[in-house]
Amino acid sequence: MLTFIFRVLLVLAIVLAWSSGSPQNSMAQDTTIQLPAPEKTGGMPLNEALASRASNRSFSPQALDDKDLSQILWSAFGVTRDDGKRTIPTARDRKELAVYAVLTTGVYLYNAENNTLTLALEGDFTKKYANSPLTLLYAAPDNKFGALHAGSAYQSVGLYCASANLANVVKTTGADELKGQLKLPDDYQVLVVQSIGHKG
User: Fold this and answer.
1) N or C: which end of the chain has fewer CB within 10 A?
2) Residue 30 to residues 96, 116, 127, 186, Cα–Cα distance (Å)
3) What pTM does this model have?
4) Are 17 and 85 within one domain?
5) Domain boundaries, position 142
6) Residue 45's CATH number
């Protein structure tokens, strides 16, 4: 009888250990990343940031910390006011822009309202983007407004990078790298790619 009970307890222990450590549960813990609140004061004076802004394709392998990640994404398309207005203008206030962050842990969609990243595609795709620790994908409808929105976002990020002494480069090369893998909103496509990191 004791042997039977021991076997039952052993089986239960194995099942519990397997379920708590299964890839599905581990992934569920990483599907949403809460970013720290962005700082809305300080930084380099605007004229100095404009004078310092430059393209730089040489990146250090050092990962960006959560503070920089939050500031970069907020610069791109973050909320600035209680009415939901953003750091950039959008035509008719329709906010038709999706910003994806390519990190070593996956590709994440930025949620400006909650200042979070939500996993959209699992896997390390940084090799597709010159191994930069962060690449932003700007996706929008392919209409006369989409490119304007993407351009406003990457310029805003470029100024933050100048202020924070980070390297960044904007390109259209690689815009189709995840085509067919990354599920985009209807009629959206990646228009611009911006790789970011510490200077190499």
Assistant:
1) N
2) 26, 12, 21, 26
3) 0.83
4) no
5) 31-198
6) 3.40.109.10
